[in-house]
Amino acid sequence: MKIVVEIIGYMAIAVGFFAATKKKMEHFRLWHLISSAFYVVYGFFLESGPLIISGIIFCVIHVYHLNKSKKNKNNKTQVL
Predict the structure, then answer these.
(1) Which of 51, 32, 33, 29 is nearest to 41 (CA)?
(2) Which of 36, 48, 62, 79 has minimal CB crowding within 10 Å?
(3) d(Cα 2, Cα 76) in Å, to the nearest integer?
(4) How many CB atoms lie within 10 A of CB 77?
């Protein structure tokens, strides 16, 4: 079981690094959202409050901004 937990942690790191390579903000937010979700799961396995709390906060922030960005794109296409 310990190896599975470590793999989840390494996946969180890898996806976070991958997110940092994205030029478009929407792509960065999507990939960092995935990374944060991995950190939340990893935090639960480690019973680490700071990992869980920070991961959830990042998830909420990214979902908010992704929804806001999507609404802005929909409004622009309706005007055209």
Answers:
(1) 51
(2) 79
(3) 49
(4) 8
* Distance between CA atoms of residues 9 and 49, nearest Å: 15
- The amino acid that residue 18 corresponds to is F
Convert the pLDDT of each residue in 12-64 to its tens digit. 999 999 999 999 999 999 999 999 999 999 999 999 999 999 999 999 999 99
Say how far apart CA 31 and CA 27 lie, in whole Å.
6
Domain residues for 26? 2-79
Tally the domains of the chain: 1
pTM over 0.85: yes
Provide the 10 A C-beta neighbour count for residue 61. Answer: 14
Q: Which two tokens stand for residue 7?
A: 């793999």
Residues 28 and 22: beta-carbon distance below 8 Å: yes
